[in-house]
Amino acid sequence: MRTLLLLLVTPLVLTVEAATHVVRNGASLAAAIARCAENDTVLLKSGTYAEGTITIARPMVLRGEGWPVIDGGGRGEVILVKASNVTISGVEVRGTRVSDMNDNAAIKCSDGTNITLRNNRVIGCFFGIYLSGVEHALVSHNRVIGDAAVQENRRANGIHLWKCSDIRIEHNTVMHHRDGIYLEFVTDSQVANDSSAFNLRYGLHFMFSHRDSYTHNVFHDNGAGVAVMFTREVTMTDNRFLHNKGTSAYGLLLKEINDAVIERNTFVDNTVGLLVDGCNRALVKDNTYTGNGWGVKLYANSSATFKGNTFGGNTFDLATNGDLLLSTLNGNSWDRYRGYDLDHDGLGDVPHRPLSVFGLVTERMPYAMVLSRSLMVNLLDQAERVVPTMTPAGLEDTAPLMRPPEKANLTVMRVLGCEGENGQARTEAGAVRRPCYASTSTVFTVHTRTLFRLYLFVNCIAFFTCALSNG
Amino acid sequence: MWKVCRYTLLDLLRNRSAVGYTVLLLLITTGLFMLEADNTKALITLSQVVLAITPLLTLVFTIIWFYGQYEFTVLLAVQPLRRSAITQAQYVAVTGALLLAFWLGVGLPLLAWAPGATSLTLLAAGSLLTTICCALGLWIAVCQRDRAKAVGIGLAVWVLLVLVWDALLLWLMYSFSDRPIEPLIVPLAALNPIDLARMMVMFRIDLAALLGYTGAVYQDFFGSPGGTLAALSALLAWTLLPLWRAVRGFQRKDL
């Protein structure tokens, strides 16, 4: 394969004699670029080049050595690329103009193909790297660092893509911008191994960006976490969503996302780990939720499949907002699970009901959080777990794992369809696991349940009266 | 007063129930940390145990101890001692003993396994609850002639503080959910010392969730100097008021 490629490329190299123009400190970068023929290289030596907006209008390579600084001087864009086959690497860009009218960026590419932006630094700019209408580009190993002291309305997105396709965004670091990585109408692209942190709004924000994949990224301490909307066929695997806390902060917010695969992600210490709103056919598998306020908020308008997820140390594992149930939970591991496993197949014999009454109460009255972990609230939750009256009865994990998946038996995972695609085996396992008292509880009418609760309450009163009189 | 206090304290340290209380707390704490691999989870369970059990046992212990001590107290009362000094000395002694038990039973293992802000908050909350419940227990014991009745009242107070108060709050929230009741909730909850202690601890543990909704309300209360001052004065009032009533009660009591 490689020799074939060489054979293809060699004639190109022979026919096009690419010249290298060396620009040293004090010389004009714009003049050197103007002198360039197609596919020439401009080698920029270290120094500061403040020449306003630099426009690249033909295929070329701009390479920096010793981190030359290209300073726009606050006059607008800094590097404007209006051609295909352009590579920019090793430069440091500063000095965009903050504007309410124009999207001024440190490096802006419009309507080209084959763009490579590698190993650059963008420091304290309005927009960082901005691709518009670009096809087939690589944005990798860039550091896009905004100004932490600047207000939100003076900030813009770190890496901003609009109407692009076939883009790879890899190994970049984005900090202190408005949105870290922003994609709109960007299709068939990969975002991998990036780190997006301390941004005022979202670490990653995409809309209408179909068939993209997001892997091995880290999003932490962003104002509102990660929000993704109105998109089909998205794959998000092995990402980490950490420490996104605030009134409307989410580790990952999915809104109107269809056919998404959310796999092996880690959600730690977020106000809401994963919020699923209006999503169809989402597969949420093998994720870990630890120490979040809400592990998952699953709205009733969504249909999702939860398999092999691990919940631990969250204030609420799962919350929902209605009785309609289109989602299935199967074979997840819950640290609150108190069931048993008599046949030792690694699956609990009693289904787990992850919804708590208190979760429902706080959904309606947020200020009820002051009663969090009160003994009374715990009793209420326990009573609800035994005799469900308020929480939707169907929302339960029919075959909860006894141990977190990494320790769980592999055959168990296979039965559940977590390893391989065996849907039938899964439903069979689910049917077998249904315990007797849960099915009888469905026979209970609401009336008898209320009576039963009253009976429990009277019992409690009687107990304490006994305690009083015997003292 | 200090002499009485010292001898009472020395006597308390040999009290079998006090030692039992220490051992029980020690067992619960070490057991939790040994059984639970995840320290945070152990801490959560422990905080629930501490917030429920410490007030109960402290109340009951103080009441029973007062009656056990009764003859000695009468003996003290015939000495040229002020009655208020006797009650104060007894309060300081019993609080000191129970605080010691709490720190030995919960504090030591906690600092060994999970040192940190949450543990310190839990210790502070537990200590505050101990001082408050000692004062309450003493008040109840002084005012009642019958031991069984006093223990009954102690249990009732515990149920009121732990269960009924929260139930009432929840009912209030439900009934007035259409009205702007939000600013009332935290102060109302703070009137109950156990709730206040619980909120202090939960502010550490459930921070992520709290920031979601009531962050503003909580932060207003615990984050602002005024709120902290109000919380501290509420806790102080919960200690001083029963203690004052106990002292007055003992002064007027027909022994």
Quick recap of the structure?
Chain A is α/β, with parallel strands linked by helices.
End-to-end distance of chain B, in Å?
Answer: 19 Å
Strand tally of chain A is 38
- Main β sheet profile of chain A: 25 strands, parallel
**In angstroms, what is the radius of gyration of chain A?**
28 Å
Number of helices of chain A: 8
Number of DSSP helical runs of chain B: 12
- Mass-distribution shape of chain A: elongated
- Classify the oligomer: heterodimer
Instruction: Round the mean pLDDT of chain A to the nearest integer and report it.
Output: 84
Secondary-structure content class of chain A: alpha/beta
CATH architecture of the domain at 19-223 in chain A, please? 3 Solenoid
CATH class of the domain at 19-223 in chain A: Mainly Beta
Describe this structure in words.
The complex is a heterodimer of chains A (about 475) and B (about 260). Helices cover about 20% and strands about 35% of the residues of chain A. Chain A is elongated, with a radius of gyration of 28 Å. Chain B has one domain. Helices cover about 85% and strands about 0% of the residues of chain B. The two termini of chain B are about 20 Å apart. At the A-B interface, helix 3, helix 4 and helix 8 of A face helix 3, helix 7, helix 8, helix 9 and helix 10 of B.
